[in-house]
Amino acid sequence: MARRKHSKRNKNLPFLAGAALILVAVIAVSLAFLLGGSEEEIPTDSPVTSTAPSQTTSEVFPTDPVTDVFSSTGSNVTSDPTTDTEGMTDTVTSSKSSSTDKNQTTTDTGTKTDTGTNTGTTSDEPSNPLLTKVPKPTDGVKRIAFTFDDGPHYDVTVSIADMFAQYGGKCTYFIVGNRVAGRNAEAVSYAASKGHEIAIHGYTHDYYYDKCSDSRYEQEVTLTHQAIVNTIGVAPTLLRPPGGGMKNSRVKASPYAVILWNVDPKDWYYKKESKANVNQIVNHILKYAEDGDIVLMHDLYENTRDAVEILLPKLKEQGFEFVTVSELMGDAKTAGQRYSGGYN
Ligand SMILES: [Zn+2]
User: Fold this and answer.
1) pLDDT of residue 344
2) Spatial separation of the C-alpha atoms in residues 297 and 263, rounded to whole Å
3) Residue 201 CA, ligand 1 centroid: distance in Å
4) Which of 28, 245, 259, 325 has CB 3.0 to 4.6 Å from 210, enough for a Cys bridge?
């Protein structure tokens, strides 16, 4: 009798276990949905479409979009890239770019960058009052800071973290707060565990800091700060406004150092997967990388990952060390100032 009872119980166990598993799965999926953090999710209302940047756009920096990640229909290179403009407007002041920036092509025929030394100022504000440079270290080491915006991405972020670690280096991620959930959150933790720097980009990426209300700006920054602290337990000290634009008054009052860039390979534009596009990204960086530079990329795209894989051994061979932005700036890092790379 007892034996039969025992047998019956065993018979029911698989059913009960299966039901429990299904219940757990349903709860997990519901939670993930409620949190809005599926790894496939990307911020909506991208400031720029996946088409080539328009010269007439009102956005000053159409260099930093979040668009259809890994989309096979992302035909953003169907137009002839050599005739594309870089979308720079005349509200940007750049010490390394000529006044012909607006006509700059995306091939590497011109200046090092068109955006990295931007100030985000509007035409009625003084240019570069808060742009700072740090002293060049005297140890003879060549340093370069790779930065990755718009993630985290559960796959690309992790791959990039591993690649830099493989070369004894570090990089910096400027993350989008509302993506920090599920596997994407794990990617942030993983990157931090490898010593990489996690910094603020925006919470939704929708609101550019030179255009939105004070309350919206505060919300974008604070929520992202909190997402970082909640995930890695370390408070960020750097901020990069989506698109790069940020009012001087906000920069000055910011408790973060505001980080721009001075090498921009436009990986978002060359995201459609092809060897030619990867080469375009690689070649731009190899051509312009110098000691003290900050490179802008996006940890969303396969091409970006592939480019990093090619670049790291080549740059290492040239003597570069890969550092975080905070390491690059060292003691000169100052809240309420802009920094876009390069030394005094
Ligand atoms: Zn961005």
Assistant:
1) 87
2) 9
3) 7
4) 245
Cα 308 vs. chain centroid, distance in angstroms?
14
pTM of the entire predicted model: 0.70
Name which CATH class applies to 81-343: alpha beta
Find the 27 Cα to ligand 1 centroid distance in Å.
Answer: 32
Q: Which residues of 216-239 are buried (b: 16+ CB within 10 A; e: fewer)?
A: ebebbbebbbebbeebbeeebbbb
Confidence band (pLDDT; 50, 70, 90) for 131? confident
DSSP 318: T
Question: pLDDT per residue over 10-51, tens digit each?
Answer: 445 455 555 555 555 544 444 444 443 333 333 332 333 333
Q: What are phi and psi of 194, to 5 degrees?
A: -90, 5
Whether the bond into 53 is cis, omega within 30 of 0: no
Identify the weakest region by mean pLDDT among 63-77, 114-128, 290-304: 63-77
- pLDDT of 91 reads 27
Rounded distance from Cα 90 to ligand 1 centre (Å) = 21
214-223 long-range contacts (CB < 8 A, ≥24 apart) are 217/250, 220/177, 221/256, 223/177, 223/178
Cα of 152 from ligand 1 centre, angstroms: 11
Q: How far is the CA of 298 from the centre of ligand 1 (A)?
A: 8
How remote is the CA of residue 319 from the centroid of ligand 1, in Å?
Answer: 29
Q: pLDDT digit string (tens) for 242-276?
A: 999 999 999 999 999 999 999 999 999 999 999 99
What is d(CA 251, CA 259) in angstroms, rounded to the nearest whole number? 10
CB atoms within 10 A of CB 280: 22
Residues whose Cβ atom is located within 5 A of ion ligand 1: 64, 149-150, 242
